[in-house]
Specification:
Chain A has 349 residues and is mainly alpha-helical. Helices cover 74% and strands 1% of the residues of chain A. In chain A, helix 2 (26-49) runs antiparallel to helix 10 (220-246) and helix 2 (26-49) packs across helix 12. Chain B has two domains: 23-154 and 291-362, Rossmann fold; 158-285 and 374-410, Response regulator (Rossmann fold), CATH 3.40.50.2300. In chain B, strand 1 (28-29) and strand 2 (32-39) form a beta hairpin. In chain B, helix 2 (46-65) packs across helix 11 (318-337), helix 3 (89-101) runs parallel beside helix 4 (114-127) and helix 5 (161-170) runs parallel beside helix 6 (186-201). The chains are: A mainly alpha (349), B alpha/beta (411), C mainly alpha (297). The interface between A and B is large, with 56 and 56 residues. Chain A: This is Amino acid/amide ABC transporter membrane protein 2 (HAAT family).
Chain lengths: 349, 411, 297
């Protein structure tokens, strides 16, 4: 346990100091935090519960639109703000900006959670790839439909309120970094504490055999919905922050970005090792590093690299990095291994 | 199992290498002025992104080979750092942040499309980095009070409102009925607002108002409606895909409208891909090679057209021309500011008043170029050879507008 | 809400015909999807990109002066080998695995294809002009481009041809046997590796045909594949696996639904409503089955 405390405090200290040590990388670091949040929450469905969801992007996008709309709508008429031909300029005062952001984030967390609860009963009754495809459809439909709604900018996009002129040039980056870092810490603590209860066992039972779990008297539907609501809560928060960070919301390219974010969250969790606590964290970090690197040095080829990377990850590392390590050093994961048995298995392979 | 070990080693080595080697540029290195730009090399805007990039590169080469930029008695050359924004606003905003805070770039060139410019402008504004952009026409860019944003092009709402005026004029001053089909993106929707205003101004009536999803390559439903209501004008805007799809299906469905007004005809190479079917299409353009503007670097439109065609193997669409003009503006501003200070360069940019081969450039308070009218050209065919001929404004008109478009049964 | 369609009823005829013709083309792509899904148990996200690749083959034939209609013969021939190559390289490693693995792996292939097509062919929107002309019905109030009729006709011919091939030929029987029970087929001497490769090749060839038709009737672009993938998904899911007539019917139904959604809800909600329909259908079927304590398999 001692080792863990040292590790956690070291990470926490690094997290707090990071924007000061690496001031030029604040935005990338904030995005990293958000990616980790998305991967961690996806893992609740995809990893622990065995429900491969492409639909968590729905909550992320909802959170983004809700946060921005609330932030604007609290002080100004929303329709006039988003109407791009509008000649009027509205400027948030610092107090208005932060009040609006706080209120917006609150709603961005609560509303997606409620939505998850409402649609959960209908959609979590689907299993296997039907669930995956249904959630995929949900994400795409949300993107297309929100792109047709005038009050949130429709095809024009939605420019979120600019950061007010307070503090130095660095303030905006620091504000969004700490916001996303706090959400990351909250997510991690929540997920970790949830995983240390019976809840995780129930989720795993659902993954391994849902019918048997039900036969044992577990109300699987209840647990599935609660799991999805937890994911929705944090995805909504992440989306709200991302909207403010990017500064411009487009329905299909930024908010309901299933083609990128929606798939990335799955990949990151798989890369790190789904069904583990640390897997998504490690996977997201590696993925982000890799992507940023390619972005810079292989102009135009980054998608080729990404495509190859995805194929390689999926084919050769379906268990992810953590799974691979576990297979290699099972002792470290607290598994007792019979040496002779292991050798026999290796030979068999 | 071996293959996995190899991959792991390879990937981790690569990741380590990439993450540790942080390159750093500065605003001016030696005799080079570094400009930064996020450009769409991949994704849905990549064809226009490449036009933009070619336009930039062409101007950089030309300026550098013709003596460079003289600041403080020394001669400098331009160099551009490009990143690929993947046609995604989220990525574009991150890249702008990266160019400025990591690479130390202090002067930016714009990306392609209004949406991406909208995403980048708040970032450049925050850091006070002057950005000259050539491809973000959405009017909302110019009403936000941005101080460091300068656009060499006329705002999007002016693209096609002239067409409505023209239709009213041809109708003997009487109001017309208008059918509209616009893609769901920032630029096209802004063109739509301009058209809506023109409709209101002339007392005309909109009869169809369709918004095409971004993925759509089938407009049959919209065109069937057009056939049923028989409007006086059909307006279509949806980047190159919209223009190509519309012309193909109008020809196939034999839709008769007296006037067909569009955007992106030259970028779509309409007359080449559709030949005679594209005849009579009326297109809004920021620039046309026959315009009579002049400058010292590219001489005039015809020379630019020839030089560009020689270098890149295709005739320059206006997206390339306006991008080249952006660099001429930057050069001019640097020399007038005679300094590399961001604020001074910004002030010099704001005071720009010059003529380029692409048009006069003078920025209004919001940053848009108000000194350059849009032109409308019409695709006209002689036998199988089709050409874009300017029909409005009358100052440059090389042909008379053909109105109304003859019906398909008579072609 | 735009109610033009109720004021001008002839539009309903137009919408239905357009929808049916569009749906037949989608059904052809979905047919390939159903085939590989049923036989190999994989879902291929790169389906749409194979379609676009087929379209480019036809486009280049058109550029070099050959009539694009011949593309429906050349494109599948080339695409068959692309498909087999793809199988040997990647797909064979995901066949026996979880369906989700195949979704992700082919998603990677899809990204790769898009980008390579962008490098190879450029990002311009292109099309192949067939110059087929137009058929007018009902005193010119309903127009049907002959290219659409052509594409529907070719789709039907290929679909029927394939059904017959599956029934009569040796390979077709081997494919069907593998679909029913791969292990049993193996025991009885079917080389399942070969069957899988052929299945994927045939699927790619079908995509090639469809791609040619898309280039002839609409426009193509390297990044345009995904909508085709997702629509073929939907068609297969609505029809149910192994239900070939169902694929044809649900394809046409989807096409008609899409056109009517366009007229009634407005063009901006056209694609959104299609996806919402997918969700609703799945949820409906889930509730229907859950009454019997069953679930979608």
């Amino acid at each position: 346990m001692n080792k863990n405390i040292i590790l956690y405090s070291a990470l926490l200290i690094f997290g707090v100091l990071a924007p000061f040590m690496l001031p030029a990388f604040k935005v990338q670091l904030s995005i990293l935090c958000i990616l980790i949040v998305l991967a961690l929450t996806w893992n609740i469905q995809g990893g622990e519960m065995g429900y491969n969801s492409f639909g968590n992007i729905l909550f992320y996008g909802l959170g983004m639109y809700i946060c921005a709309s609330a932030q604007v709508g609290m002080f100004f008429p929303l329709a006039e703000w988003t109407e791009s031909g509008g000649e009027k300029t509205f400027v948030h005062s610092p107090t208005q900006f932060f009040q609006g952001m706080a209120f917006g984030l609150l709603l961005a967390a609560i509303i997606p959670t409620i939505v998850a609860g409402l649609i959960g009963y209908a959609i979590l009754g689907l299993r296997g790839h039907y669930f995956a495809i249904c959630t995929l459809g949900l994400g795409v439909a949300a993107g297309e439909i929100s792109g047709g709604i005038e009050i949130i900018g429709a095809g024009q996009g939605f420019t979120t309120p600019p950061f007010p002129n307070v503090g130095s040039l660095e303030s905006r980056g620091q504000f969004f970094y700490f916001l996303s870092f706090i959400v990351l810490v909250l997510t991690f603590i929540t997920v970790k504490s949830v995983y240390s209860t019976r809840f995780r066992l129930v989720l795993n039972a659902i993954r391994d055999n849902e019918d048997k779990a039900e036969a044992m008297g577990i109300q699987t539907m209840k647990y599935k919905i609660i799991g999805w609501m937890i994911s929705a809560f944090f995805c909504g928060l992440a989306g709200g922050i991302m909207g403010g960070l990017v500064g411009y919301i487009d329905s299909t390219d930024v908010a309901f970005d299933g083609r990128e974010m929606g798939v990335f969250m799955v990949l990151m969790a798989i890369l790190g090792g789904k069904g583990t606590l640390w897997g998504p964290v490690i996977g997201a970090t590696l993925f982000h590093l890799f992507k940023e690197g390619f972005w810079t040095y292989f102009l135009g080829w980054q998608y080729v690299a990404l495509g190859v990377l995805i194929v390689v990850i999926v084919i050769y590392f379906p268990e992810g990095l953590m799974g691979w390590l576990r297979e290699k050093y099972p002792e470290r994961f607290g598994e007792v291994v019979d040496e002779a048995d292991r050798k026999a298995q290796v030979e068999l392979k | 199992m071996k293959i996995r070990n190899i991959i792991i080693t390879f990937v981790s080595a690569l990741a380590l290498l990439l993450s540790t080697s942080v390159t750093s540029f500065a605003k001016v290195v030696g005799d080079k002025i570094i400009l930064g730009s996020a450009i769409s090399l991949t994704g849905k805007y990549s064809s226009n992104g490449v036009h933009t990039q070619n336009g930039y590169n062409m101007a950089v080469d030309r300026i550098n080979s013709m003596g460079g930029i003289k600041v403080g008695g020394k001669t400098y050359k331009f160099e551009i750092i490009y990143y690929d924004d993947e046609s995604n606003p989220k990525r574009a905003a991150q890249l702008a942040e990266r160019l400025i805070s990591q690479d130390g770039v202090e002067y930016m060139l714009g990306p392609y499309s209004s949406g991406l410019t909208k995403a980048i402008a708040p970032v450049t504004e925050k850091y006070g980095v002057p950005m000259v952009e050539a491809n973000g026409a959405s009017r909302s860019l110019f009403t936000k009070g941005y101080k460091y944003l300068f656009a060499v092009l006329a705002p999007a709402n002016l693209y096609l409102d002239v067409a409505i005026d023209l239709a009213v004029e041809k109708n003997g001053g009487k109001p017309v009925t208008v059918a509209m089909a616009f893609e769901q993106d920032a630029f096209s929707q802004d063109v739509r607002l301009g058209v809506l205003e023109a409709i209101e101004r002339t007392g005309s009536k909109k009869v169809i108002d369709d918004k095409l999803p971004k993925e759509l390559n089938d407009m049959a439903a919209t065109l069937a409606k057009v056939k049923a209501v028989k409007p006086d004008v059909l307006v279509v805007s949806g980047h190159t895909k919209g223009a190509l799809t519309a012309v193909r299906q109008i020809a196939e469905m034999k839709v008769d409208v007296p006037m067909l007004a569009m955007t992106h005809c030259d970028a779509a190479k309409l007359s080449k891909q559709h030949g005679k079917n594209s005849q009579y299409a009326l297109c809004a353009s920021q620039w046309h090679k026959t315009l009579t503007y002049k400058d010292n670097f590219f001489k005039d439109g015809m020379t630019y057209d020839a030089d560009f065609s020689k270098e890149f193997g295709y005739a320059p669409p206006y997206q390339a021309a306006e991008s080249s003009a952006a660099l001429l503006v930057f050069k001019d501003a640097f020399e007038r500011a005679n300094s590399f200070d961001k604020v001074k360069v910004r002030d010099a940019l704001a005071a720009t008043d010059m003529q380029t081969f692409y048009g006069n450039i003078k920025f209004a308070k919001g940053g848009q170029n108000t000194d350059k009218p849009m032109v409308l050209f019409q695709v006209m065919c002689d036998g199988d050879k089709c050409e874009n001929k300017v029909v409005a404004p009358t100052k440059w008109a090389s042909a008379e507008l053909i109105h109304p478009i003859p019906s398909w049964s008579k072609r | 809400m735009d109610l033009l369609i109720f004021k001008v009823p002839i539009l309903m005829v137009q919408a239905s015909l357009d929808g049916i013709l569009l749906g037949i083309l989608f059904a052809l792509i979905a047919y390939g999807m159903a085939l590989q899904w049923g036989v190999m148990n994989i879902i291929n996200i790169a389906q749409g990109d194979l379609v676009i690749l087929g379209g480019y083959i036809t486009y280049f034939m058109y550029l070099s002066g050959i009539h694009p209609a011949l593309g429906v013969i050349v494109a599948p021939a080339i695409m068959y080998f692309v498909g087999v190559g793809l199988y040997k390289l990647v797909i064979n490693k995901v066949v026996d695995r979880d369906l989700f693995i195949s979704i992700l792996a082919t998603f990677g292939i899809s990204i790769l294809f898009m980008q390579l097509m962008n490098f190879a062919f450029g990002a311009d929107v292109v099309l192949a002009n067939s110059e087929f002309g137009t058929t007018m019905l009902f005193n010119n109030s309903v127009t049907l481009p002959n290219s659409k009729l052509f594409s529907a006709l070719i789709s039907i011919i290929f679909a029927i041809g394939l059904v017959i091939y599956m029934k009569k030929s040796k390979l077709g029987r081997a494919i069907r046997a593998t679909a029913q029970n791969a292990r049993a087929a193996k025991i009885l001497g079917v080389d399942t590796e070969k069957v899988y490769a052929a299945t994927f090749g045939i699927n790619a060839a079908l995509c090639g045909v469809a791609g040619s038709l898309v280039a002839i009737t609409f426009t193509i672009h390297p990044y345009m594949g995904l909508p085709y993938t997702i629509r073929s998904f939907m068609i297969v899911i609505i029809a149910g696996l192994g239900n070939l007539p169902g694929v044809a019917v649900s394809g046409m139904g989807l096409g008609v639904f899409e056109e009517f959604a366009d007229y009634i809800l407005g063009t901006e909600f056209r694609i959104g409503s299609v996806f919402l329909l997918l969700v609703l259908i799945l949820v409906y079927r889930r509730f229907k089955l859950s009454k019997k304590r069953e679930y979608l398999k």
